[in-house]
Amino acid sequence: MASKKRVAVVGTGTVGSQAAWRLAARGAEVVGYDRFAPGHDRSAAGGETRVFRSLQTHDSRYVPLVRHADVLWEQLQAETGRELRRLTGALVMGPADDPQMRTVVDGIAEHGLDHEVIDAEAMTKRFPQFRVDDGELVILDRRAGFIRPELAVQTAARRAEELGALIRRYTPVREVAPVAGGGVEIRTDTGTERFDAAVVTPGPWVGDLLPGLPWQVNVYRAISAWFLPHEDPAADAERPAFIRCGDTPFYGIPSPDGLAVKLGLSQAHHQPVDDPNRLNRTVAPEELETFTAVVRRHLPGLNPDPVRVSVFMEGYTESNLPLVGPLPGCDDIVLLAGFSGQGFKLAPAMGDIAADLVLEGRTSQPIDFVTTHARTVA
Ligand SMILES: Cc1cc2nc3c(=O)[nH]c(=O)nc-3n(C[C@H](O)[C@H](O)[C@H](O)COP(=O)(O)OP(=O)(O)OC[C@H]3O[C@@H](n4cnc5c(N)ncnc54)[C@H](O)[C@@H]3O)c2cc1C
Prior knowledge:
This protein has helices at 14-25, 63-80, 99-111, 120-126, 149-162, 206-209, 289-298, 343-360; strands at 6-10, 29-33, 50-52, 85-86, 90-95, 115-117, 136-141, 145-147, 166-168, 173-178, 184-188, 191-195, 197-200, 217-227, 241-244, 250-254, 261-265, 271-272, 308-317, 323-327, 330-337. By secondary structure, it is an alpha+beta fold.
């Protein structure tokens, strides 16, 4: 019988924890490394919720990958008995002629996604928490809701450990080095370990860990802010997540406990991060002005004074599409990075694709638009 493939996972955050689960479930001997511990909030994950949605505002090519992720979210939830996602639905709204709304409408036509168009009268009755302007389109994404990021990362990592993975916590990897003739060495402050292959998922630290990477991943500081309603919502009120397209795009997610709504703005409002090790987690009052403005304009039921703020990091490539696949000239090192604001919903699919690439050398998932093979090397 062939021996188990020994695989390192560098960074057991959003994507890495899922890669560890999928690799361990598929028979690999897995060692994960993280500079912190699974479920921490110092990187891209955290803040209670992330939107899961089937309707795509940026690029409909994500739809098949989201469908694969959807199946795996259900599987992880069933295997562990934890409520990782709650499918509340998500409203996608904005001017009908907005390019992102057009991407949504085209994606529905192309992929037959489960949805409902909500007219102005129905909005007033069903979703009085939103103000919708004339000429705006509102579509309810029925296969949508929120994911719990801390719980999802910890649950995937724990499931991987149950299946035999070892996770080295508080162990920053200093170097991932290909070995002549095949294999990879992982170097940390305490020693060097040898593997058949490595999945590298360091999120915002990708430039730090792989300084010679031929692609740029720019890191941004993203603020989440929580707001309370003026009145308690009715017990039977529908409280979907939502995405608002238009001149100031933003999104919102009801808190799992039902008490607050978390809002986030688009990348245009994020500040660049020079060094992920020195993230400024203090939010200045002027950074909240756009939040206050969108609450006043679009969400009349919320008090515009936030009750909580948090800061996270997101990595963006030049095209905003993630990098998925082997490093140039080294098939044993598979990189997954630069997931911008899209990565959480996709994470189990990306973990499974990493396992495909490492264990089988190819994947049947449609990753042509994100694969490292298709990228120009600078
Ligand atoms: C505020 C905010 C809101 C978002 N909302 C959504 C949303 O609603 N829906 C959605 O789908 N996506 C959303 N996203 C995007 C999503 O959260 C990210 O795309 C995703 O979390 C990125 O995952 P990752 O695994 O690449 O990075 P991370 O989750 O940051 O994981 C990287 C891990 O690598 C570890 N690490 C780094 N360097 C090393 C090293 N040298 N050695 C060891 N370990 C290392 C880190 O400690 C970390 O645990 C949002 C992002 C932010 C910031």
